[in-house]
Amino acid sequence: MIIRQAFFEGAIHAGKEEEFRTYVAYKLMPLWLSFPGVREVRVLYNIERDEGAPAYPMVLSTMYDSREALAAALESPVRYESREVTRGLLEMFDGRIHHHVFDLALN
User: Fold this and answer.
1) What count of other Cβ atoms lies within 10 Å of the Cβ of residue 70?
2) Closest alpha carbon to 58 in 4, 2, 12
3) Angstrom distance (rounded) from CA 11 to CA 82
4) Helix, strand or coil for residue 102?
5) pLDDT category of residue 81 using cuts at 50, 70 and 90
6) Bridge partners of residue 61, in order along the sequence
7) What string of DSSP letters covers 48-100?
8) 86 pLDDT band (50/70/90 cuts)?
9) InterPro entries in the record, alphabetically (predicted)?
10) pLDDT exceeds 80 at position 106
């Protein structure tokens, strides 16, 4: 399994936390769930971190069967649509988003 994670490094604007979560749930989650080949979508919201650790108020995690399935999803029209919708989310966020791809070790 291949996991692609988007780390939202920074901060949600003060007082916008609930609006941010609602935007993710109702505008972005349906798009993320419609990526071709996606097996799982998880959104993680930070509740605490080690002292001095960078702030990641949200992490998006998606799972695919293979690197080829991920590549197809990243080339799909829904990805470009979700990027456009993400602009509205970024109006409530200061920071950057970076992506990492992991190989999930299955025991």
Assistant:
1) 20
2) 12
3) 21
4) strand
5) very high
6) 5, 42
7) ---TTPPP-SEEEEEEESSHHHHHHHHTSHHHHHHHHHHHHHHTTEEEEEEEE
8) very high
9) Dimeric_a/b-barrel (IPR011008)
10) no
Neighbours of 19 (CB within 10 A): 14
| Token code pair at residue 17 | 């936390």
Q: How far apart are alpha carbons 29 and 41 in whole angstroms?
A: 8
Q: Taking a C-beta distance cutoff of 8 angstroms, is the pair 58, 24 a contact?
A: yes
Please count the CA atoms within 13 angstroms of the CA of 72 that sit on its side-chain side.
Answer: 13
pTM: 0.93
Burial of 12 from C-beta contacts in 10 A (0-12 / 13-18 / 19+): buried
Using left for φ > 0, alpha for ψ between -120 and 50, and beta otherwise, residue 10 falls in left
Structure token digits, residue 19 = 């609006």
- The 3-state DSSP class for residue 17 equals helix
- 70 Cβ contact partners less than 8 Å away, ≥ 6 residues apart: 2, 4, 37, 64, 101
